[in-house]
Design a protein that fits this description.
Rossmann fold; DNA repair metallo-beta-lactamase domain-containing protein; six-stranded mixed β-sheet; damaged DNA binding; 21 strands; 2 domains; alpha/beta; single chain; six-stranded parallel β-sheet; 5'-3' DNA exonuclease activity; Metallo-beta-lactamase, Chain A; globular
Length: 540
């Protein structure tokens, strides 16, 4: 699991950007997934849909402006976790793009160094990476960059993000690596690991990894191939479970996973190793289904009407002149660029492509093509194409959407096919709602009340289209929209999981950098246990 730190946005950044909403970075993810969580440091006044459209006829871009009464939280600067340069004033997608570039370089350099480094130079395996069973058997989950433990020979990789596979290389020989088929294929493709040392686990099926220990991989609802591991230790006759351990890796919890776990497990889980990326009150974002549905319908309307007409943008600009002069020559009104990580966020592109009845374009010249070819089965059959004329939805790195210049460079070779460019940046940490700034919660009772109110409020489960509409900037050549799509569990998701999946002990795997954060997370675990004991949620 990656090292992460809680940080905030500088007050100078707020003063500098008077025309837009400034998001304060709550936490910075160190490695490749780059899901750098942030939450708004400003309390934004809610505007009606009509207000958003009326602003379209003014000179200012369509974006919520700072209100004078808004409260600004001053904070320290943000540094890139890889190269340590100051990225405080970068746009959020520029932070991601910069981190992506830095990580690829540092990972390659670390891999080369590790080929000649001795085993002694590696740190000792931390306890949070080791799962221990009653009979003394031990396994490791997502811990490859540490010194060899002679008593451990079984390793599990939850998914193919580099903060989880860091340390793997061609010469890996510490033991057998278990993972989903997709993750195994990606691992072999990248590292050419000895195939005798990898084992693909069938999803949703029990596999015996020891005489009386089994594992069931379940869909983590994260990136392609990502799994939640349910380990069960049985008595000598394999009749009764004596210990159950759940390791979530990185996951986006949902009712289907909760129901599946409760149906499999006859008794309470002994331990849950929990992805606590967003275990901070205020990180609430809509369900994935809602985000995919609303965003894909929005894209359909843009494709049908054209973006300027959809937003009733009547300004006589060079953009409209260009549009009129090229409309008769292009195949599509809009080119939709969906920013993604090396692997992850593909569901948004799939939803948009299916809504538009088109395919997803991936250039054969790109490094992404080689990666995607390892998990083509993840996509609906025939959805991926290498013929640009067959698609108006392109999967691109987030770095492509970082600036007008980078989009210009990409669009240059496709300008005869598409009239306008619309970009989508899928990220859960741009979203705020009425729970975004929770009150002080000094007691367990106050925490219980907060969780109960949150879990009973269903309005924040649905994405309001106005969240996207208000980002329109009428003076911009290209329109880029942040959509609150996340592949990590929100605070609400975690609260629902913690109150409905019965467990004896929960261990946080993320945000372990400070004792204060660890204590706060432990208080939430105790809160969920108290709610279960009251029979308000969970098993009865």
């Amino acid at each position: 699991m990656s090292r992460r730190s809680i940080v905030q946005v500088s007050s100078s950044d707020v003063r500098r950007r008077r025309s837009g909403v400034v998001k304060s970075t709550k936490k910075q993810r160190k490695l490749s997934e780059f899901d750098i969580p942030t939450a708004s440091s400003l309390q934004v006044r809610q505007r009606s849909f009509e207000e958003v459209i009326v602003r379209n006829n003014q000179d200012d871009p369509i974006i919520i402006e700072e209100e004078e009464e808004e409260e600004v939280v001053a904070i320290k600067e943000i540094k890139c976790p890889i190269c340590q340069i100051d990225i405080t004033n970068f746009e959020i997608y520029q932070k991601e793009a910069h981190a992506e570039s830095c990580l690829e370089k540092s990972t390659e350099a670390a891999s080369k160094r590790s080929l000649t480094a001795s085993a002694v130079s590696r740190p000792k395996l931390p306890e949070i990476k080791i799962l221990s069973f009653v009979n003394g058997h031990k396994v490791v989950v997502d811990g490859f960059n540490f010194e060899r433990d002679p008593v451990i020979s079984q390793y599990f990789l939850s998914h193919f993000h580099s903060d989880h596979y860091m340390g793997l290389r061609k010469s890996w020989d510490h033991g057998t690596i278990y993972a989903s088929q997709i993750t195994v294929d990606l691992m072999i493709n990248k590292f050419n690991i000895n195939r005798d040392l990898v084992r693909a686990l069938p999803m949703n099926q029990e596999t015996w990894i020891w005489a009386n220990i089994s594992v069931i991989p379940l869909d983590a609802n994260h990136c392609p191939g990502a799994t939640v591991f349910l380990f069960q230790e049985w008595d000598d006759r394999r009749r009764n479970v004596v210990k159950q351990i759940l390791h979530t890796g990185d996951f986006r919890s949902n009712p289907q996973l909760i129901s599946r776990l409760n149906s499999i497990c006859p008794t309470a889980l002994d331990q849950v190793y929990l992805d606590t990326t967003y275990l901070i009150p205020g990180f609430h974002f809509p369900s994935q289904d809602s985000v995919l549905s609303v965003t894909s319908r929005f894209a359909s309307q843009l494709a049908e009407k054209g973006i300027r007409q959809f937003f009733n943008d009547s300004q006589q600009s060079i953009f409209r002149f260009i549009a009129r002069s090229t409309a008769s020559r292009t195949l599509y009104n809009c080119l939709f660029l969906v920013g993604t990580y090396t692997i992850g966020k593909e569901k948004l592109a799939i939803a948009i492509a299916e809504a538009l009845n088109t395919k997803i374009f991936v250039s054969k010249k790109s490094s992404r093509h080689k990666i995607i070819s390892q998990y083509l089965s993840y996509f609906p059959e025939g959805l991926i194409t290498h013929e640009v004329e067959q698609s108006c939805v392109h999967l691109v790195p987030l770095s492509t959407l970082r600036s007008k210049e980078s989009i210009d460079l990409y669009f240059k070779e496709h300008s005869k096919i598409y009239q306008d460019v619309v970009g989508f940046i899928p990220t859960g940490w741009t979203f705020t709602n009425k729970f975004a700034k929770p009150p002080d919660l000094p007691t367990q009772e106050s925490r219980i009340q907060y969780c109960e109110q949150l879990l009973q409020d269903h309005q924040n489960n649905t994405l309001d289209l106005r969240f996207i509409l208000k980002q329109y900037k009428k003076h911009n050549r290209y329109q880029i929209f942040n959509v609150p799509y996340s592949e990590h569990s929100s605070f609400k998701d975690l609260a629902l999981f913690g109150t409905q999946v019965h467990s004896k002990e929960i261990l946080a795997t993320v945000n372990l950098h400070s004792l204060e954060r660890i204590k706060d997370m432990h208080q939430w675990f105790k809160t969920w246990q108290a709610m279960q004991n009251r029979r308000c949620y969970g098993r009865r």
